[in-house]
Amino acid sequence: MGNYKKLWYWLLGILLVTFTLLGYLGSDVYRNAPPIPTEVKVATTGEVLMTREDILQGQSAWQSTGGMQNGSIFGHGAYQAPDWTADWLHRESITWLNLASQEKFGITFDKANEEQKAILEAAAKKEYRTNTIDSNEAITISPRRAQAMKEVAKYYHALYGDDASLNSTRESYAMKSNTLADPARRDKLVNFFFWSTWVASAERPGKEVTYTNNWPHEPIIGNVPSVENVMWSIISVVVLIAGIGLLVWGWAFSTKHETEPVAPTIDPISTFKLTPSQKALGKYAFLTVALFAFQMFMGGAVAHYTVEGQTFYGIELSKWFPYSLLRTWHLQSAVLWIAAGFLTAGLFLAPIVNGGKDPKGQALGVNVLFVALLVVTVGSFIGNYLAIAGQMPAELNFMLGHQGYEYLDLGRLWQFALFLGIAFWLFLMARCLVGAFKQGGDKNLLALFTASVVAIGLFYGSGLFYGERSNIAVMEYWRWWVVHLWVEGFFEVFATAAMAFIFSSMGLVSLRTATTASLVSACLFMLGGVPGTFHHLYFTGATTPIVAVGASFSALEVVPLVVLGYEAYEHWSLRTRAAWMEKLRWPLMFFVAVAFWNMIGAGVFGFMINTPIALFYLQGLNTTAVHAHSALFGVYGFLALGFVLLVVRYLRPNFVFSNGVMKLAFWALNLGLAGMVLSSLLPIGLFQFHESVNVGLWSARSEEFLQQDFLENLRWIRTISDVLFIIGGLSAGLEICKAVFLHRAPKN
Fold it and tell me: Which residues form the Nitric oxide reductase subunit B cytochrome c-like domain (predicted)?
């Protein structure tokens, strides 16, 4: 550890404390997950309406339709169709009120006077929030609620089928006709939707909040922000201010301004002869930009579906490629191409840290891994298609077709194969890293880089810890280990260590400066990032301690982002350190964009929806998409493209990127992304926010609200930004493809 002993102790201590929190409260998720009842029965007659098996079969049926890619459950999923939890809850409570009003006053609820409505709503609140689950985990409901359930179930049965009276609604929701063609499976589906509604309306035993901490906002039954929701929101803001203050103080008193080394006259990395494994990376660069292009076109089509619903400029595309399928491919290809970009960077750096040589058989391993990535990509996409088209046998859907969960949509077999592929990448990296440790010199930065490689190789496997029938609260816990912890945590540390290693190897920054900055950054990222995972679980069936930890630590995630302007300046200034740095201008520009979007997308737009009180109203609205687009592509997308541009620069040293084309690519991507957010996603999300606070989440996601002319116009306006973004992406991809296919790698 040498001169970095204190920093290593800090990092190890932070990891020990934060993962202890993550694990201990994870056991709380298991212990206190909302129960799936053994049966739901009618109080007076004893009629059994559904069993646990019926609910679990309904969950499987929901997964096979695309799950979170077709509306959402507990606020997590697609934004076009309703959140089924909130939608069912409102429809059922209104039906219940009408039935009660007819029984008591002989009129429908809307015709009752204010006094009568107050009496009815008080009765509804009491019935819905009273938890009637018994020691045998059986739920008893009133005959009136049973009747209301049956009436609402008819609507969903028709909606997921081909009832002609709901054609317009399906178009508004971007749902194809016969989304779930089998009537028997539709019968099961409605059981799962009811269960999610019961979880969101019944109070947790011994508490005055529901299993979902009173989410979604539904005034009829008293689903409003809890005391804890407000309290921990205020505390999280205080923690944020304190964290920023401490960071500024620490920065001011501990920063030592070292004289940077004199840049060498030639690029040190260019003095290494390309190894066979490095020469094999051209196809990885192509795969990365090919999947990126595919993702862009899928995103454009998905955005267009939000306007036309089932057609693409008049072409009835949804017959073959419905919204849920294209959104699945859009998100899954994003994970794949960004991961491919990071894998490419790692495989390029591995021989360099090993002294410029390959271990025996390294090139073969790189080629085998590439084939494996292709097989997983094609196989998972075909499985997605067959599942959503209804051509996958129900018993095979989870394993080969569609898991139904955002970002982990691919069938379990393909997910496991991808994990094996990433683990094989770890093996290829380890062969070089072990050799590097045998060489002399300071190995602290190498140790941090190695630790991040190991984490990336192993932590994707956390997505395998739930099953087809796992309680959705448990599934969400593990899903966010992948989406938040794997991507936003360990990818961040890998990127920081990799860039520090690259710049120090180039002689542009001292090894001491690079190592210190990387260790400090890792401490800051992990301190907020690991327990900050819980901010995704506020309303998915978790308890108050999880809300408290998630709110407090997710505020700390924003703290290191306040100094990213300085990081951007450092990257920008490197271009003038040496004449040969001009050849690396565009990778550096993409790294500058990473710092900017990390501050805006992850910082500003992330914290906008992070506090419990904000997320109570914003979860499942377009404001979530604002954060998702600006953080996922703005940070990790630009980073992956920057890595690929950097690698291609060394694979094809005689190729010169066209400044005109790359300038178009850079600015079109940035302006296109900003346009998507500012001209469409953010204003739509803010209008929804107002509706969610004023009326309820069900209304903010309803057909009547989202199909208003002015909101539809905002979605049309987004087309301009989408086209600009696609032009930028294709321009960058064109330059990379020209380098890979039209120029030969130098002969050793």
Answer: 42-217
- How far apart (Å, rounded) are the C-alpha atoms in residues 196 and 33? 12
Please say whether the beta carbons of 305 and 176 come within 8 A.
no
For residue 398, give the 3-state DSSP assignment.
helix
Q: Please report whether residue 55 resides in a domain.
A: yes
Which SS3 state, helix, strand or coil, does residue 531 take? helix
Q: Please count the structural domains in the chain.
A: 1
Q: What six digits make up the tokens of 489?
A: 């945590």
Between CA 347 and CA 370 the distance in angstroms is 11
Per-residue model confidence (pLDDT) at position 257: 56
Radius of gyration over every alpha carbon of the chain, rounded to an integer in angstroms: 27
Residue 139: strand, helix, or coil: strand
Q: Which two tokens stand for residue 81?
A: 């169709």
Longest Cα pair distance anywhere in the chain, in angstroms?
A: 91
pLDDT given at position 746: 63
Q: What are phi and psi of 405, to 5 degrees?
A: -115, 130
Pairing of strands 72-73, 76-77: antiparallel
Range from 38-42, 495-499, 533-537, 657-661 carrying the lowest mean pLDDT:
495-499
Q: Give the integer Cα–Cα distance in Å for 587 and 571.
A: 10
> What are the b/e assignments for 101-115, b being 16+ CB within 10 Å?
beeeeeeebeebeee
Residue 161: inside a domain: yes
Question: Each residue of 116-162: pLDDT tens digit?
Answer: 999 999 999 999 999 999 999 999 999 999 999 999 999 999 999 99
Closest by CA position to 623, among listed 573, 558, 690: 690
Quote the domain boundaries for residue 166.
37-224
Strands (E) in 19-137, as ranges, are: 39-42, 48-51, 72-73, 76-77
Mean pLDDT of the chain: 91
pLDDT digits (tens, 9 = 90+) for 218-276: 999 999 999 999 999 999 999 988 888 888 777 666 655 566 677 777 877 878 899 99
Whole-model pTM: value is 0.94
Q: Is residue 526 part of a domain?
A: no
pLDDT at 435: 85
Q: Is residue 419 part of a domain?
A: no
CA atoms within 13 A on the CB side of 702: 16
Side chain identity at 550, as an amino acid letter?
Answer: G
> How many CB atoms within 10 Å of residue 582?
12
Q: pLDDT by residue (tens digit) across 381-397? A: 999 999 999 999 999 99
Let me know how long the chain is: 748
Task: Give the residue carrying structure tokens 């017959």.
Answer: 319
CA 377 to chain centre: 19
The answer to whether the CB of 652 falls within 8 A of the CB of 738 is no
